[in-house]
Amino acid sequence: MRDEVIGEWLFYEGFLYFYVYLYIDQGEFDYKTSAKRTEIFRRELPLALTAIRYGDNLLFGKYPNLDNAMIIVNFISTYPQFIVQENWGSFSSLSI
To answer: Using one digit for the tens of pLDDT, what is the confidence trace for 6-23?
Structure first.
């Protein structure tokens, strides 16, 4: 079971994005469990993003424009209902 928030910086068409990958399930859970995991990820993701921002404080200090990069979250699941890509704003819009 993976309860990880995996992120990477991507440069696309002149813009920098922070892409986040959330593995809801990989065929190892039933629908109900996957729905619950999706709910938990959504609830806890702001805290995880805040922790990433805090942990990379030196990087953000050196490159302040990173605070304005869009955060794109990819929910990955074997169930089509939970597969979605969403814009979660930017690090500057988080309550840090």
So the answer is: 999 999 999 999 999 999
Which residue in 78, 77, 87 sits closest to 49, CA to CA? Answer: 87
Contact yes or no for 61/47 (Cβ under 8 A): no
Overall pTM > 0.70: yes
Residue 59 in contact with residue 66, Cβ under 8 Å? yes
Nearest of 82, 94, 93, 88 to residue 40 by alpha carbon: 82
The answer to whether 83 and 76 have CB atoms below 8 angstroms apart is yes
What is the amino acid identity at position 87? N
For the chain, what are the domain ranges? Answer: 5-93
Assign 3-class secondary structure to 35-75: HHHHHHHHHHHHHHHHHHHHHCHHHHHHCHHHHHCEEEEEE
Mind listing the pLDDT tens digit for each residue in 24-44?
987 778 999 999 999 999 999
